[in-house]
Hints:
This protein is globular. It has helices spanning 21-32, 74-77, 84-92; strands at residues 3-8, 13-17, 54-58, 65-67. Helix content is 26%, strand content 20%. The protein has a 4-stranded antiparallel beta sheet. With 96 residues, the chain is α+β, with helices and mostly antiparallel strands. It is built from 3 helices and 4 strands; from the N terminus they run ββαββαα.
Amino acid sequence: xxxxxxxxxxxxxxxxxxxxxxxxxxxxxxxxxxxxxxxxxxxxxxxxxxxxxxxxxxxxxxxxxxxxxxxxxxxxxxxxxxxxxxxxxxxxxxxx
Length: 96
């Protein structure tokens, strides 16, 4: 299952899974816009970071890519900030 790990400057890390990279991203986007809760555990409130910089890894990458200003657009935020080989993997899924 495709996964994307998102990390913030506050050293908080969040792994989001989906049937595709775009679905995982859209789940994260809903969290960032306050439309979906990450946890429904009572007393555990998780909010998006105040800074717009987000780091992310695709599947088994060993280094983080950077989104300098979260746009809410899969291609601008994820695809355009990946290495060529990761872009090819995403393209293979038929996303672009």
